[in-house]
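Ticket 4471: requesting a sanity check on a complex prediction with magnesium ion. Repro inputs:
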Amino acid sequence: MTITFLRAPRRAAVAAAAITVAVLGGAGVGWAAAVTTAQPAIQTITPRSEKDVTNLDVLRQQLRNYYGDALGSGQFAADSNYAKEASHVAADGTRYLSHYRSHGHATKAIVLDVDDTSLATWNYEVFSNWAYNPTTNADYVNGQKFPAVPGMVAMAQAAEREGYAIFFLTGRPTSQEQATLGNLTADGVGVDDGFPKPTTLSDGEDGLFTKPDVTAYPDYLKAACADDPGGKCTTIHYKSATRAHIESLGYDIVANFGDQYSDLKGGHADKTFKLPNPNYYLP
Ligand SMILES: [Mg+2]
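Returned structure tokens:
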């Protein structure tokens, strides 16, 4: 039991590396060449000593402490340092949006990422021991099990009252759109967080953007991601191209909220707000 617990993240890391190699191999690169040219998804330092890094089990405990969940129940505390930090970002956003003055004719709008920007997935991190698995994650998504990130519902409600269009932009697949909408707003299933309903765009599109299968890409994603491996958008290309599409329909994205730098890079927003998330990294 203990051995399984300790080894799970290691298996996940090896799987991620193998996927990178397989993608390159599929692009017609020879296997040996692919192995030598494959790069890890995360570029970071090489520690000179174990003293340069935090022991992984100790780090997990530090994260539990940060979320005010020292015993790992899966429920974060309202008075945790995590909740305070997230609330602080939400309050900064509220203040900024309330002072913003439109210029030009575009409708002012905000864009919100979903996981760990609008919905807090701490319960799933604890359940999975920080080893993402699409099958078990889908149980949490489809069961609509996620509470809101502290401060973010009030921020979005205030923005809506001030006339902002509210758009959500997530890497979750289209198949999870209804469950995502239900968890964010209110549908009587699982947790209902009470976010404003996504604004319907000027062309009739719904304002919750989920990531389509590559075969169903709209033209703006096909064009933006033609040079990505297999034509599949990287997160930065998917999100920045979607924001550009929103702008093309007559909106000024005044603020873009995300927990990953890949949510925030690529422009097409006047200002970005970074929510705290020490649990995973999505390049
Ligand atoms: Mg996220």
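Notes from triage: Residues 113, 115-117, 259-260 surround magnesium ion (CB under 6 Å). Leaving this open until the requester confirms.
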